[in-house]
Hints:
Elements: E1 19-22, E2 28-32, E3 35-41, E4 49-55, E5 57-58, E6 61-62, E7 74-77, E8 82-90, E9 97-104
Amino acid sequence: xxxxxxxxxxxxxxxxxxxxxxxxxxxxxxxxxxxxxxxxxxxxxxxxxxxxxxxxxxxxxxxxxxxxxxxxxxxxxxxxxxxxxxxxxxxxxxxxxxxxxxxxxxxxxxxxxx
Length: 114
């Protein structure tokens, strides 16, 4: 089963994936733009993860939530309706790039009221 469905436009190009930064309780902060180098890893016996680079500025677009991108925030991908926990490193060669690694968060089970 492929849980990470990619959508294609009429020309056969992969459509962009939306990255939404959120607090630990799920309050959405902002969409993450200025993203490059997306890599995904899928495993049947482990958690899914992906990584990408976020640029403070790219093509004259400034990432407004740059200072909010920190360890242990959540990232929501609406196309997959999946939440990931964020781990962030500043690029050693360029401080205006954050290397972001995401690990899938298992959905919390809701207690059923009887």
